[in-house]
Amino acid sequence: MARKVTLQRKLGFTALAWFLGCIMFFPIFWMILTSFKTEIDAIASPPLVFFQATWENYQLVLNQSDYLKYFGNSVVIAGGSTILALLVAIPSAWSMAFSPTRHTKDVLMWMLSTKMMPPVGVLVPIYLMLKYMGLLDTRTGLVIIMMLINLPIIIWMLYTYFKEIPSEILEASRMDGAVLWKEIVYVLLPMALPGIASTLLLNLILAWNEAFWTLNLTAANAAPLTAFIASYSSPEGLFWSKLSAASTMAIAPIMVLGWFSQKQLVTGLTFGAVK
Amino acid sequence: MATAHTKTLSRIMNLPSIILLFIWMIVPLGMTIYYSFQRYNLLTPSRRGFNGWFNYEFFITDPAFFEAIGNTLLLVTGVLAITVIGGILLGILLNQAIIGRSIVRILFISPFFIMPTVSALIWKNMLMNPIYGIFAHIAEFFGANPVDFFAVIPLLSIIIIVAWQWLPFATLILLTAMQSLDQEQQEAADMDGASTLAKFYYITLPHLARAITVVILIETIFLLSIFAEILVTTNGGPGTASTNLTYMVYNRALLQYDIGGASAGGIIAVILANIVAIFLIRAVGKNLEA
User: B126 and A31: CB-CB below 8 Å?
Assistant: First the structure.
């Protein structure tokens, strides 16, 4: 039974929400707009809203700076680490959700607590280890590290999703005489897939945007987009249009993925505490 | 209903992740502790040896140290304050009947998906630049003097950028929590003539307690380790005005090659994070029980 909403009230809230929403989105909007300006238009005073749009910056970024290499590194590092972590996490979350022991809760809390360790606490040994193993500035090294840092969150997310699967259905299939692997393939997997997909999606977003290890452990070879964009911070002249074009390309795919993952984001990142 | 057989199997399934996380937790941390008692600089690797507590002494007596601790805490609490209070207010707003709500939600949530280096550079250049930035133009329009953000208020500028990234997260979580609020309870309060403020204080806020705890927990994990935003905007400066503990250790390790000193700093960061974590885990653990 919804309360009656007066039209005035509705319009007022609508106007306020749109106004604030536009302010929040403005930096992104301005970046996208700037990416279509020439460098001179980009720093015009007063700022230009209407101008002769150009694709030049996108072409320049794509042609000049090995952009595709950085993009590829981002895909390999974010994708590789996520998939690898899922392979380890699925059995683990599975067993904790379906046959919990009295230690399960402690184990989960302990896993979460490993995430509490600030990365800077292990920066030195990780850096040196990768250096001695020849893995510094390699995609392999980054995939391994990123997999480890995201593993606790992935296990937690999966655990939250798996726990929602009713265990009665397992018992029913066992009564019908299903063997373990059949139980997994035909009964559990279809029910678990949405949770796995959500976890994959959310973790791709987190890994794509991770900017401590990617900045510290890579240089020319394995640098992903986070590091490539950071290279624009050097104060040699203003290249706002190119920065904007490179940034827009770097964030667009993930931002759109993010729009569709709002629900998963809430359940996943709050460990099921908020739904 | 699990048999002994499936129990063993499930333990085995759980082992790889436990072993991996255990190694990940113990080995590097042990090495950091070991290095923190060593005299070890990559520039003079031959002069290595046991160094006692010297690294810690040296790190703590660095005038930048207390500033870094202060900056770290300011950064965390500043962003938490903005995002939690802002998130509650925006959550209430977005929970109203609004025309085009799903699009407004997209406008609000988008900053969360922007990589830190991009958002920091966009803010630094296109918004906060004292000559060409939007804020400078706005100031000029009103006849005020433009602020040189990163020179005058470096830490506050970083807090603003980071809060912009995390406000969407808090808003989304708190909005979701509000949507599960019991309508009938609200109506009953309406009937009893409760004021809007009283309803918020006695119904909404207690309902949100758990969501707020989770927001604080997750944000704190990430905020204690803010790095990229500082690296691409101020490099911790001017001086050490915007250096947090993470940046200070990075500076020691990868710019000064002081392995021993950086390790001591790393251990201090771990201790600080643990103090924060003990409180948070306890609060969250209690909240997650329900």
Answer: yes
Out of B6, B168, B287, whose CB is closest to A273?
Answer: B287
For chain B, domain boundaries: 64-289
How many domains does chain A fold into? 2
Residue B84 in contact with partner chain A when CB distance is under 8 A: no
Q: Same structural domain for residues A50 and A104?
A: no
As a whole number of angstroms, the distance between CA A230 and CA A253 comes to 19
Task: Please compute, for residue B109, the number of CA atoms within 13 A of its CA located in the half-sphere on the CB side.
Answer: 25
- Asked whether the bond before A253 is cis by omega within 30 degrees of 0, the reply is no
The answer, yes or no, to whether residue B5 has pLDDT greater than 80, is no
Question: In this structure, what CATH number is given to the domain that contains residue A152?
Answer: 1.10.3720.10
Tell me if the domain spanning B64-289 has CATH number 1.10.3720.10.
yes
The encoded tokens of residue A150 equal 């995201």
Q: Among A43, A91, A273, whose Cβ lies nearest the Cβ of B13?
A: A91
Claim to verify: residue A113 and residue A202 sit in the same structural domain: yes
ipTM for this model: 0.88
Q: HSE of B200 in the Cβ direction (CA atoms, 13 Å)?
A: 8
Over residues A15-44, the pLDDT tens digits come to 999 999 999 999 999 999 999 988 888 877
Question: By residue range, what is the domain housing residue A17?
Answer: 7-58
C-alpha–C-alpha distance, residues B132 and B136, integer Å: 7
pLDDT at residue B282, rounded to an integer:
72
For residues A22 and A137, membership in a common domain is answered with no
Q: DSSP states of B100-152 as a string? A: THHHHHHHHHGGGGS-HHHHHHHIIIIIT-TTTSHHHHHHHHTTPPPP-HHHH
- B228: nearest CB among A128, A215, A274: A215
* Bridge-based pairing state of the strands B49-50 and B38-39: antiparallel
Greater pLDDT, B113 or B12: B113
Q: Over the stretch B149-160, which tens digit does the pLDDT of each residue have?
A: 888 899 999 999
Interface A–B counts its CB contacts (< 8 A) at 308
Cβ <8 Å between A17 and B273: no
Contact call for residues B36 and B268 (beta carbons, < 8 A):
no
User: For A136-191, what is each residue's pLDDT tens digit?
Assistant: 999 999 999 999 988 998 998 888 888 888 877 777 777 777 777 777 778 778 88
